[in-house]
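Subject: for your reference before the review

Hello V.,

The reviewers asked for a structural picture of the protein, and I figured it would be easier to keep everything in one thread rather than splitting it across files. Below is the amino acid sequence we used in the manuscript, unchanged from the supplementary table.
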Amino acid sequence: MPEASGCAGWAAPALAAVLARVRESTDETGARFPLYADPATGSWKSTTRGSWTGGFWAGLLWLRALATGDPGDRSAAADCTRRLAYWVEQDTATRGLIFWYGTALAAGPGQDSAAAALRDEAARACLAAYDPQRGLVPWGDAFGGPRLLARADGVPGLVPLLAGPVNGGAAAAYGHLTRHLTLCQSEEPPRPAWQAGTGDTWTPHAAPPLGWSRTVPWLLLGAADGLHCLAEDGGLWEAVERLAAPRLAPGVPLVPRAREGHPPSPPVSSIPSAPSDPLNPLNPVNPLDTSAAAIEAVALLKLAALARTTGRGAMASRAADRAHRILRHLSEAHLSPRGGLLNGCYDAEHGLAPRHELIWGDYFLASGLATLTGLTDPFAA
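And here is what came back from the structure prediction:
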């Protein structure tokens, strides 16, 4: 693959390190789902059902199985995927994150039939939740708060999940994607969350806050998948180019702050020693977020591949170059000796896991490296 050229010296060892970390994490967490890990000890905070991140753990297990070809690794991945079934009937747009990334590497021809069946069941449940009046699958109430929200993290995964074999799914996927792009891009910087009002009105929602580091990466990822899996782009390219242009400009940092536009955290050396409790008040207010950078890199690899096939050579070159630079920087500057991507920020507003290893950060770093090394193609997941 073209992406594999020029990166063999760093991408392959980095991918091997992340996958070795997967094996270590499996030994620690057993049948639980890792969520975030202490940056000093590597010890995981884990959950029984996986929360909204369970699909990323299953996806990492499938990546490991793909890399090793080991039947035992494949069995572990399949077992983890089966344990995601609880979320099929839960009212949350994050079912896209759970079931797309938890099954995509497993559900292809000749792969795991149980994963394929689970993905299709989840797609039908999400399609049933589609609100044609609002033009989207609502955020839902599975995690509390208002149900009728449009949130940027409700886009990725759900677009290709809806656009699969279910009748009417492509139209719902297009409506869901374009509704979010229109709302989020109605402000600058893009606002990550909107709440439905009366009629067809929407008002800004406070959480996640304006400037949230993962807003644009999540939207770019969902839009790239939409361009790939929907037959008609319906003006999607124009919206994507507006969204991507600021990220592709010269001098943009490779790793964003958790709250872009806010003052950065003080240097680590100036913060007094504190326990590793993620709710400790000494946690920094605006740390880096490597997980946002990893998501963006995967989205840009997808956009680069699409741009090459549609005569957008300049955009393809810029997107691929930035994706490569992000992944190399993450691999060389933020990968721990044990193979975890550090300096991810779970929730800066509440001081939760502000400089930690995050399971979705590990997943997207591994996914990007898998593309660069030729293990997968950009749209495998």
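For the response letter, the relevant points are probably these. The longest strand covers residues 33-37. The beta strands are 33-37, 44-47, 149-151, 193-196, 202-204, 357-358.

Happy to draft the paragraph if you're swamped.

O.
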